[in-house]
């Protein structure tokens, strides 16, 4: 009996070691934009399976697409993560969010006309980023949802969404080939309160994981991706890189790192610093119709 039990225990142990060894965190996987697998996440875990897919083409295109491959190239060519179903709460659908893009042609949903009411695209030495204001119901997100963070981590390291990938050609000038898409392995995004931000960190930069840190998930766009968030402004700029999320310089010149308080201590009512948008330069101004003339009409859900 003892022998049998010990044998079973040994077997179980072997099995769990095998499972642990076969799992690769999403940020440790590398992909080529032109040669993607059907799903970046083939695992079955506590959160189930990847609900969408990464091969996105004309057959998957449309407002019910479950494409989970996003891009961020420029002020008029990027995707945001939105709900796969009407009235989604980010906290409930974070594992299943899908790409909503500014242009058709990528096998995704397309962000409806008038959704984005203010927008800044910025390219810095370390990342590209879009920030702005949005009618989030146009991306099927519940009107009152304060939302939350999306990133390629999560406590199970499978990402939010599971298997979600982000690519960009905006770092092309740094690698010499203007047509090359690189996988922005480290990225973060917040969606909620009619505010959005999406930052893709240059994987060839030394601090990609820090600029795209994922531990300040209760602080929202203004702290993680400080920018103007101005209504009615549509612009594309160059810019300095921000301070790392959570890092700030006090009035006395001392640089400190904020530690986010756990949710068990209740709402965050005080932060020792204000968001500090970095300097921008060479901004080009646009109107919404300059950028999004091909967008479909919204389907009101509320
Ligand atoms: C189009 O995308 C679907 C869904 O990912 C995939 O099953 C299909 O093989 C793709 N078609 C082509 C021609 O790549």
UniProtKB/TrEMBL annotation:
Record key words, sorted: Signal
Signal sequence coordinates: 1-20
Name of the protein in its database record: Macrofage activating glycoprotein
